[in-house]
Write a structure and sequence with these properties.
Radius of gyration of chain A: 19 Å
Largest interface: A-B, 42 and 43 residues
Number of strands of chain A: 9
Helix content of chain A: 40-55%
Oligomer: homodimer
Strand content of chain A: 5-15%
Distance between the termini of chain A: 34 Å
Number of helices of chain A: 15
Strand order of the largest sheet of chain A: 1-4-5-6-7-8-9
Largest sheet of chain A: 7 strands, parallel
Order of helices and strands of chain A: HHHHEHEEHHEHHHEHEHEHEHEH
């Protein structure tokens, strides 16, 4: 084990004082960086990058070479698990993910099984190689999709703005959806456990689509399996649950066992910190589209989020959704500088 | 003025006791009805139906011939106002609305003006004709898009899953967006006022996209102009504000001056009723995709929403978003029957 030189992220996740507000950004490695696009063009595809530990390492470190970010996050995709289950993942250029096979009925759900973690070894190898390359500079965050979010893609077969097949299944065949998220919960727990054993310093669950469900369905199909995953993870590794549009479930999310709740850009961060800041850390929640402007506007937007967060311990700056490809790298530089210039959460005052 | 035979909707909006829970459904007139599709095919286009008061009347009444719904809602589109502003609305088959001209910069925003209400006379004529045809059977709801929701389409030029241009403008040129929503607020207030004078018994604002904004931007660009509209409406006409994804703003929405808040299907109706039920009525919020099942599942889903609503006064059953074209009319029949069979909100007990 190498000691971590800049451990502000881990301290913030444990709600300890920090010398500056830690900042990292969802999709900080990706298409807004010319060096990423160059490497992806050379590799041929997104999956060629994600399945090659050396390339995944290079991509993971790219944003850290440009910006003084306080964490690295594994370069991978949430859909590696359903791919390992045999559903046949591909990424059509400019179209997002597609599965060759979907989980549309009882029979398909019954035949679903937790994949052999050995088929996902390329992910754990990438974690090990990134950790070596980081040499203790900042922590590495490992991640997975939430059991329900994975189910959305597995049942729909692709991305969607409303995931109609899944929402329909929640009413028509809740037993089938129960089965899918239960298998996913086991798979995600094993997968994140392996990432932690390979060296990931914190673990994040992306519940991108749980907020599409009605409250009772959300509790049953999204929140309950998240709790199952969190309960099964190795002790001592801080966890972050990112939630989009699940504002009404914050009470339950705070009680889920996560160290930190990641909020989307529409959530009221100030209210969340005020109500629950003594119980969990929060991460978020700048609108990533605020970066499609100029340095002055970026700084103003960042200051607004920092003001909402306040200076109590337990806060990690982030965007409220992933960076978009049109983001100018200069905006990211201005953002990171603005966050680091801000008053630290609960640092000793002079 | 004709007295209204079934005024359960209006009583519920005023939080008075009702003999049964009133129910109507967003997009209750539309593509899931074969008789609608037949009429639309004959008329040639959506706008040919919407701009012809007799056809708009026929379409408005179609669902009431099939189902014992407790309200009619004007058949029209929220984009009639920007069309009247000269932006050139069209509906490409299967693609949704498009504007020939967008409001993308300061110059376009500066030249925007409240349209002469005479150019929208076809809407007020439709309201009058529908009222005559209803002969006091149930109330008629008039409606408009919220100032911000209209701005979304005017700036983006079409529908979008994220309305990136608008969210970007909120950070880059908040002054330009202020101008657009201010003009829209005046236009919407005049438009709804004319609908009330033509006979609409209740008025509804659809704030479909306000929930895309960060909290401070939501208050400035969506909520503030909604308050402006509500304050300018004729006294005594009950108002409904439908909001999607703006859960964290419920405090402010309740204080906005609306008689009733319409909730989307992901909102926690039980909590909203418990916290705010003494101050405003609520409407909602069945997931419309629950109707893509069978009668037993529909009834179960309806009972769940009714249980969340409770029996205190001030509740209108509805879906939490518009009916989708694939909705089987049999599901709507089963739904309306299930709601009417339920214990009435605060009816005298035996």
């Amino acid at each position: 084990m190498t000691a971590i030189a800049n451990d502000t992220l881990l301290r913030a996740l444990r709600r300890e004082p920090v010398p500056h507000v830690p900042v990292w950004l969802m999709r900080q490695a990706g298409r807004y960086l010319p060096e990423y696009n160059a490497l992806r063009a050379k590799a041929g595809s997104f999956m060629a990058l994600a399945t090659n530990p050396s390339l995944a390492t290079e991509v993971t470190l790219q944003p850290l070479e440009r910006f003084p970010l306080d964490a690295a996050i594994l370069f991978s995709d949430i859909l590696t698990i359903p791919d390992a289950m045999g559903l046949g993942l591909s990424f059509a250029e400019g179209e997002g993910p597609r599965f060759a096979r979907t989980v549309g009925d009882e029979r398909a759900a019954a035949s679903l099984a937790v994949p052999d973690m050995d088929t996902l070894r390329y992910v754990f190898d990438a974690v090990r190689e990134i950790k070596r390359s980081l040499r203790g500079r900042v922590p590495l965050i490992g991640f997975a999709g939430s059991p329900f979010t994975l189910a959305c893609y597995m049942i729909e077969g692709r991305g969607s703005s409303d995931f109609a097949s899944v929402r329909r299944m929640a009413f028509a065949r809740p037993d089938v959806l129960d089965r899918v998220v239960a298998v996913n919960a086991q798979a995600v727990a094993q997968y994140l456990g392996e990432q932690a054993r390979a060296g990931a310093d914190a673990l994040m669950l992306f519940d991108t689509w749980g907020g599409l469900l009605a409250p009772a369905a959300y509790r049953r199909f999204s929140l309950a399996p998240i709790r199952t995953v969190l309960a099964a993870l190795p002790a001592g590794v801080p966890t972050i649950v990112f939630t989009k549009g699940a504002h009404d479930a914050l009470d339950e999310l705070v009680a889920s066992g996560a160290s930190c709740i990641g909020l989307d850009w529409t959530a009221d961060l100030a209210r969340a910190r005020e109500r629950y800041g003594e119980r969990v850390a929060f991460q978020g929640n700048l609108d990533p589209l605020s970066l499609l402007t100029d340095a002055v506007s970026v700084e103003r937007a960042a200051r607004e989020v920092l003001a909402a967060a306040g200076t109590a311990p337990g806060y990690v700056f982030n965007v409220g959704h992933g960076l978009v490809p049109a983001t100018p790298p200069e905006s990211v530089a201005a953002l990171v500088a603005a966050v680091h210039a801000a008053a630290p959460s609960s640092a000793p005052r002079g």
